[in-house]
Amino acid sequence: MIGLKRQSKRKKFSLVILFAFILNIFVFGSFGQIVFASEQFIEAENFLSGGTIEVNTNYSNNRAYSTKNYFSFTVTGNSIRIPVTYYLNSSGTYFYVQIDGVQVYKYTATSKITRSETLYFDLDGKAHAFKIGVNDSSNGSYAILDYIIIDVEHYKILLRYLYQYDGDLFLVYDNSAKGLERRVYVNGKLVQTFSTNTQNYGLNIYNYHLPEYGFYTVQFATYNETTGEEVYSNVLSYTFNPVPDPPVRYEFESILQPGWDNGGTYLINPNGKSANYYVNFKGENIKIVGQSFGSTQITYSGSFNIYIDGLLKENVKINSTSYQTFTKKYTALGNGVHTLRIEALNGFGTKLDYFETYILPSIPQITNINTEYDTVTLNWIQTQSTNSYNILVNDAIVATNIPVTTTSFIYKVNSPGLYKFNIEAVNSEGGTKSQDYYLNITMLPGKPSVNYSIYRDELTLNFNAIGAISYKIFVNNVVAGEITGGNNFTYKIPQNDNYSIYVTACNLYGETVGDTINLGYIYVPPAKPNLFYTIVQGAIKFYWDHVANALQYILTKDNQETLTITNNTYYDFNLKNLLNSGLYNFKLLAKNNSYTTEGDILQVLFLARPKSLTGKYNNGEIEVTWKQDNFAEGYYIERSEDGQIFRTVAQTSQNSYIDTDVKPNKKYYYRVKSFNTAY
Q1: CATH top class, domain 614-675
Q2: Most confident among 246-260, 524-538, 652-666 (mean pLDDT)
Q3: CA–CA separation, 655 vs 639, rounded Å?
Q4: Which of 149, 218, 458, 624 could share a disulfide with 81, CB 3.0–4.6 Å?
């Protein structure tokens, strides 16, 4: 197994150059923080000399070899990205990748060829053994593996890391896009396009000049001109803040000139004569500390002018006959060297003790402001040279001494209106305010959050919204109910249908509509069906009324399914299906895709024809007998002399009848009907 370590031989060579470059940066320029992507980036180890697999090759005469024509390693992760270059010396030689002994990739040469590509494999978070090599052990074929990357999405272009130097952003990326246009986006805006013939596979570097201080996001994309598909890389972000010059203090006694006061201060216009003082300084902000006094010998007061870069900043008047200490501050002068000129006028003197440059906090940048009803959440980027923050609303300070590590603040408003927000970064020298952020606050309720549950035909909603007094519930865009003083609602679903819901939160200032929730197609239990019947022409005719939400009906006999009926509301049950008399239980079930509703049991008494009917003549009488039916209450005996017209001649509960009203040599016909008056 080949070990993996953080740095290869070729990378060491590159880092020597990089360290020298960084040294120059610290001396001559401004080097920003390096921002890395979050995945694991592992350099491949140099291999011992003596084989044909080359790894981290620097030059043709200074190669690191493995001792075999393959190299192996074990990784644990959810994915692996392998940028590789290989040379196949002749037709039939091939490059391959195996995972746990199974070949997962193979490229076979048809002629001598050198290829560079990036391979990507999904893993399962467990340890897997990799083997990468060529099948040629003697003819000079080789492969070069610089690094592998663990746990990264399958980007065609992978942003590795970025850093900033003197306002230029350097972005290091891994490119596996072939034959595709590359695009660069900064803060979502397309800033550069590379054509398909400017491809550099593997690790590359891209330089972008940052036009101003602020927050930047960088993303690459590949564009397929044939399909119009644009595929994006991962995103890296960077905050570019100014690096101020260090504060410098200038003591005036160190720059005295002959004939001037040498007692620790710098005296301008001795003996009441006008004089000027010039000095150059470097910094964005300056503070001037000194003393001045007016005249006791002339009628006007003393004064002096302060110029910076030739522009009059202030005329300072002194209305005192004694020395008066003054401190003057001027800010936001811009980076670079500036000229300070102090011109003393009309008075006996101006003493300069010292002046110094100083650093104010960098300008706060409000990233976003979120509002919900009366709650405003301000978010900003942490600033440099800052001790604390103040929050200003409509130019009034509403919070002070917010810790420098805090970058958000919650403020409550009392009424709707237009509000101005500022963040002020503060240190010992003063404060720096953000740009004005205006926000029209309506104090509408917050967007309602909704939870729901469905049981049979009941939809139960639970909702909540900050600042809401009441709620309106909409089902399929129709108001289903209004609630005041509560946040629960139960809706009776009337029928099978597609349903969607949303809730509107209401207060004195208006309404806020919540998100629409699509519930999909909902089936509700069918109504209870009622079953009826009549017996006609040897059949039981069942019929019923259609009930709501039923898609089909099931007729059962003695809890056994007899028939499923979809379109009709009737069914003829042939009595031939019943061979014996009996009390049968029929039931109708109404059904849809989710529910079944049972109707009441309908009892139907079926009396079969009396069986074993016989007749016998004896001594002027005819005796008719039949088999007793336990479900029969009694029997009607009918007689006919022609076999066509029958009339009832008797009723009995027995299973025999003797007819005495008969004549000799005459033919009689008999039939027996059973009955039960309880059904």
Answers
A1: mainly beta
A2: 652-666
A3: 16
A4: 149
Which of 17-26, 152-161, 254-263, 625-634 is least confident? Answer: 17-26
CA separation for the pair 597, 590 (Å, rounded): 5
CATH fourth-level superfamily of 531-605? Immunoglobulins (2.60.40.10)
Of 39, 42, 11, 32, whose CA–CA distance to 162 is shortest? 32
Fold: same for 157-240 and 531-605: yes
In 309-416, the DSSP E strands lie at 311-318, 324-330, 337-345, 349-357, 365-372, 375-381, 388-393, 396-403, 408-412
**Among candidates 7, 38, 4, which has minimal Cα distance to 152?**
38
pLDDT of residue 244: 64
Q: How far apart are CA 658 and CA 660, in angstroms?
A: 6
As a CATH number, domain 9-150 is: 2.60.120
Neighbours of 298 (CB within 10 A): 12
Instruction: Look at residue 507 in the predicted model and tell me its pLDDT.
Output: 93
- In CATH terms, 449-522 corresponds, of 2.160.20.10, 3.40.50.620, 2.60.40.10, 3.20.20.390, to 2.60.40.10
pLDDT digits (tens, 9 = 90+) for 430-455: 898 998 999 999 999 999 999 999 99
**Amino acid identity, position 7:** Q
Where do we find the tokens 């606050």?
A: 441
Does the domain at residues 157-240 carry the CATH identifier 2.60.40.10? yes
Distances (CA, A) of 453 to 173, 450, 481, 502: 49, 10, 17, 14
Q: Specify whether domain 365-441 bears CATH 2.30.30.240.
A: no
Q: Where residue 234 falls among pLDDT bands split at 50, 70, 90? A: confident
CA distance 35 to 163: 6
- For residues 495 and 444, is the Cβ–Cβ distance under 8 A? no
d(CA 339, CA 309): 5
Q: What is the pLDDT of residues 325-376, one digit of tens each?
A: 778 888 878 766 788 887 766 544 455 666 778 888 888 989 888 888 999 9
Pairing of strands 147-150, 40-43: antiparallel
* Domains in the chain: boundaries: 9-150, 157-240, 249-357, 365-441, 449-522, 531-605, 614-675
| Residue given tokens 């990357």 in the structure block | 149
Query: What 3-state DSSP class applies to 432?
Result: strand
User: In the 8-state DSSP scheme, what is residue 263?
Assistant: S
How far is residue 237's CA from residue 169's CA, in Å, rounded to a whole number?
11
371-384: average pLDDT: 91
In a 10 Å sphere around its CB, with 0-12 CB exposed, 13-18 middle and 19+ buried, how is residue 557 labelled?
Answer: middle
Strand order in the sheet with 656-659: 614-618, 621-625, 656-659
Select from 524, 540, 523, 542 the least CA-distant residue to 532: 542
DSSP per-residue codes, 165-193: ETTEEEEEEEE---S-EEEEEETTEEEEE
The predicted model scores a pTM of 0.47
- Give the residue with greater pLDDT, 350 vs 627: 627
- Interval 470-514: pLDDT, tens: 999 999 999 999 999 889 999 999 999 999 999 999 999 999 999
What whole-number distance in Å separates Cα of residue 364 and Cα of residue 415? 27
Query: In the structure encoding, which two tokens stand for residue 23, read together?
Result: 């040294």
**Architecture of the structural domain at 249-357:** Sandwich (2.60)
* Residue-averaged pLDDT of the chain: 78
Q: DSSP class of residue 44?
A: B
Query: Is-contact 326 289, C-beta < 8 A?
Result: yes
**pLDDT value, residue 252:** 53
Q: Residue 202: CB partners within 8 Å, gap ≥ 6? A: 83, 85, 116, 118, 146, 174, 175
User: Within the chain, how many helices (H) and strands (E) appear?
Assistant: 1, 56
